[in-house]
Amino acid sequence: MMSLLFAIALGCVFITSQIVAKESELVSYSGFQTVIDNQNTNTNKNTSDTKAAYNLDWTSYHRLSNIYAFLTYLNTTYPRLVQLINIGSSYEKRPLYVIRISSSPSPGTRPAIWIDGGFHAREWISPAVATYIIQQLVEVPANAKLLSNVDWYIMPVVNPDGL
């Protein structure tokens, strides 16, 4: 558990240091789009391919479609561990997804931990942290003990409309 928290903290420091380093490149208005395009290469990938859905790197911004494709990939790849739950739709009719991660086949039989992110428009770090925690819980065998006594419910994007 401590290594997971430490990795999350290191990821935040790494991302912040990249942003500070990139500020020196923003010299003129005409260069903004080039910097954005170079920094945000993952937004141009085809999200219908499950390999592209898995290419979340936690150092770049990912659009809602990339995040939802990643959740769908995990749900399909790890059906005994992951359950993707549609809890409704947003004001602009976008789906709202919660992912349940549990080693128990029966929901509601154990204590639960809730994590959410993406409440505010232009809030980029909390969906990244939430998807990183999901990836660590599902795909890193050393973290399997974190699933032994609790169910995890994680909603990486609470406000998909960005309002």
TrEMBL record:
Pfam families: Peptidase_M14. Residues 1-21 form the signal peptide. Its cofactor is Zn(2+). InterPro entries: CARBOXYPEPT_ZN_1, Peptidase_M14. Keywords: Metal-binding, Signal, Zinc. This is Peptidase M14 domain-containing protein. It comes from Daphnia magna. Residues 60-163 form the Peptidase M14 domain.
